[in-house]
Design a protein that fits this description.
heterodimer, A: 254 residues, alpha/beta, Rossmann fold, 4-stranded antiparallel sheet, 36% helix, globular, B: 282 residues, mainly alpha, MetI-like fold, 2 domains, two-stranded antiparallel ribbon, 11 helices, 2 strands
């Protein structure tokens, strides 16, 4: 692994307003061109970790962050960082697909237009390319101007993935992106991710250990806000070093 | 077993009766005014100047006056009211300051309309030297209407699901971009409903315009916003109590015109609402 990490978390602790410590002394490298899967039982701080990476946690008042989060070597929490530009570099897909109340096309052009892209041809190109990358183009190419809510749940989630891709981000964060989907839609999303990792840094909170094992190039096991074990996916799921990791992936708890 | 069904019957009967009690006065009132006022209605009654000490002729200047006052109220109350609602719903944190603002708005809604009239007289007519004018009357009505517009608009904005805003942020949008591109368009029909209901109240009020704009008898149309004007509610008050020998037909005809004016705004609000439900995508 000669490449330098995309994200570097340096002794990160995170406390919510009510005093609950969601993350405790996490140090972690996230490398480009691979899928990093952050998994573990509920309440382990996975989503918090994800939302730290695009500063979506800024919306919650009273939080306290210690340590540093570096993107390409620069502290994203440093004063003067343009948080909106950061979120365009670090896109996010949520557990529940939330299409904006507008057409399929407008959903996709929403982000680029906010960033100031006005050129029709350029927007059309972004629409087609991101839909193709999310394996949705063939299903919707003839009805781009219909309401996005008319799509099925699986299509909506791929639309949300495409919407994130239309930002042309460097990193894609996915928070249990297939938790509400049927197996076929899940397989489509996972296949898209495999293709996308050639060009992006992908961090996913999978919705099951099985999914983590399927998609992870690098796996991170978290428990109660702490990082228990990390390693290459193949190794962590077959020969875990920590007893707690083994207990969790073999289904003894969780 | 039997007794439960009996209780249910009695319960339903009571609920039905209560509903009827609510509907009945409205039907009676509207019916009575229609029956009494319909004979007065004619093209001349709506479009002519009043003549003969208002005992003959038409309502034209009062209709135009009420239209102008409603429009003037909208011009002042809608931008300010919607702006306040956006601030409260989208930007304001829950602090002592915003709680005081909310308290003020709630209390403003409870102030009797004649007090607004007196306030308008003091502030706009006398202190700001607008005189008794359409400007002063519109501003007074606008202040009275603001709480209605603010509360309904804030409610409409809050009804737009939170995840839309979070998606906007995750796509690099600012708070204002979320408001302008997602929240406001979704809340617009709800806001419009509130605006119409507020204006409807303004159109029918007498007390706030009593000291600030309304003319007793002015058989010409206003030429500027610094003119006085006749207005339907005040005209109705005048011809019902101040003019001896007034034909009852004209009184109820005027009431009917005012009622149609206000009820048609109500219908407009209902149509807006139902369109909203049909087009809503969440």
């Amino acid at each position: 692994m000669a490449e330098s990490p995309k994200f570097l978390l340096d002794r990160v602790s995170y406390t919510y307003e009510d005093g609950v410590q969601a993350l405790c002394d996490i140090s972690l490298c996230i490398y480009p061109r691979e899928i990093t899967a952050v998994f573990g039982p509920a309440g382990g701080g996975k989503s918090t970790l994800l939302r730290l990476l695009n500063r979506l946690n800024d919306l919650i008042p009273g939080r306290r962050l210690e340590g540093r989060v570096l993107l390409d070597g620069e502290d994203i929490y440093a004063p003067g960082v343009d948080v909106h530009a950061l979120r365009r570099r670090v896109g996010m897909v949520f557990a529940t697909p939330v299409p904006l109340p507008m057409s399929i096309r407008q959903n996709l052009t929403y982000g680029p237009e906010l960033a100031g892209v006005r050129d029709r041809a350029r927007l059309d190109e972004l629409v087609e390319r991101s839909l193709r990358a999310a394996a949705l183009w063939d299903e919707v190419k003839d009805r781009l101007d219909e309401p996005a809510t008319a799509l099925s749940g699986g299509q909506q989630q791929r639309l949300c993935l495409a919407r994130t891709l239309a930002l042309e981000p460097e990193v894609i964060l996915l928070d249990e992106p297939t938790s509400g989907l049927d197996p076929i839609s899940t397989a489509k999303v996972e296949a898209s991710l495999q293709a996308l990792k050639q060009r992006y840094t992908i961090v996913i909170v999978p919705h099951s250990v099985q999914q983590a094992a399927r998609v992870a190039d690098h796996a991170v096991f978290m428990l109660q806000g702490g990082l228990v074990e990390e390693g290459p996916g193949g190794q962590l799921f077959t020969k875990p070093r920590d007893q707690r990791t083994e207990d969790y992936i073999t289904g003894r708890f969780g | 077993m039997m007794s439960r069904q009996v209780y249910q019957r009695i319960g339903f009967a009571f609920l039905t009766l209560s509903t009827a009690v609510v509907v009945l006065p409205i039907l009676l009132l509207v019916g009575y005014i229609v029956v009494q006022g319909a004979p007065a209605i004619s093209w001349e009654f709506v479009t002519a100047m009043p003549r003969d000490g208002m005992r003959a002729g038409g309502l034209w200047p009062a209709i135009v006056g009420t239209l102008l006052l409603t429009l003037g109220t909208a011009v002042f109350a809608v931008p300010v009211g919607v702006a306040v609602a956006i601030y409260l719903a989208e930007y304001a944190r829950d602090t002592l300051f915003t709680r005081l603002i909310r308290l003020a708005i709630i209390n403003l809604a409870g102030v009797p309309s004649v007090v607004y009239g007196l306030f308008g007289l003091g502030l706009f007519v006398i202190f700001l030297r607008f005189g008794t004018s359409i400007l002063a009357g519109s501003l007074t009505l606008a202040i009275m209407t603001l709480p209605v517009i603010i509360s309904t608009a804030e409610e409409a904005l809050r009804a737009v699901p939170q995840p839309f805003r979070i998606v906007n942020f995750s796509l690099g949008g600012t708070r204002w971009q979320a408001v302008r591109r997602v929240v406001l368009p979704q809340a617009l029909p709800g806001i419009l409903t509130g605006v119409i209901l507020g204006l409807e109240r303004a159109a029918g009020e007498t007390a706030p315009i009593l000291f600030t704009v309304a003319a007793f008898f002015l058989p010409r149309l206003p030429r500027s916003i610094f003119d006085q004007t006749m207005a339907l509610p005040y005209h109705l008050f005048v011809i019902s109590t101040q003019v001896p020998g007034m034909p009852v037909r004209i009184q109820y005809g005027t009431a009917l015109v005012l009622l149609v004016f206000v009820l048609s705004m109500n219908v407009l609000a209902a149509i807006t609402r139902s369109r909203f439900r049909r087009h809503r995508q969440w």
